[in-house]
TrEMBL record:
InterPro entries, alphabetized: ComB-like, ComB-like_sf
PANTHER family xrefs: 2-PHOSPHOSULFOLACTATE PHOSPHATASE-RELATED
Pfam families (UniProt xref): 2-ph_phosp
Protein keywords: Hydrolase, Magnesium
Gene Ontology molecular function: any one: 2-phosphosulfolactate phosphatase activity
Keyword match Hydrolase: yes
Name of this protein: Probable 2-phosphosulfolactate phosphatase
SUPFAM superfamilies tied to this protein: ComB-like
Cofactor(s), by name: Mg(2+)
Amino acid sequence: MDAWFRQDGYQVRLEWGPDGVTALGADCAVLVIVDVLSFTTSVDIAVGRGARIMPLRWKDEAAAANARRAGLPVGETFGKELSLRPSSLTAIEAGTTLALPSANGATLCDLASKTGAHVLTGCLRNADAVAARARELAGDRPVGIIAGGERWLLPGDPLRPCWEDLLGAGAIVSALPDGRSPEAEMAARTYRATGASLLHECVGAKELIAAGYPDDVRLATEVNVSTATPLLRDGFLS
Ligand SMILES: O=C(O)[C@H](CS(=O)(=O)O)OP(=O)(O)O
């Protein structure tokens, strides 16, 4: 891949989705996956309470079956039981291990784990803490922020860049030092201009509110309320 697609020469880089993992994973010592609605917000809440999350690739029935065989609960997308909904995890018990499939965040974690980079997950709730951990893990090598994006429900499953992940990524970039690529700088400037103020009006938020999960949006909108820095090790975020 040509060097400019890897945002060569910058210490803080930003790209979108699975192809972004491929592009930035080549050089970056750390990849930070950002999927604000909802996977990485859910991970922050669970890990912040002392639980750990096993990310599962979306629709990977074999991985889900393996997790069940190992006695792990497997979260659904929707539901009041432990699920992908952040609001279902606010009382998760310390020591719980939850296998969590998600279309975007969990799938990206799995992809990123194959690049050799350290893999962190971040969101608005833990942006400053995750940025500090990324910096510490990276040393003098570059950090790549992956804005997860969502999916258009259309043939080919195309990526839909989304507001909430631009903001989450921008919050993390804002807490990292200079040496930002233009792509990373754009996200930081957007975040600095708006904060989380418009998050509850974006497409993903409206979708969740209409589905009856306004608390998910409220939890995702809280900025720097958490010091959890979920790091993927041996298939678990903790
Ligand atoms: O949290 C979500 O609502 C989405 C579900 S889906 O992608 O819209 O089916 O998952 P996530 O992977 O957390 O973006």
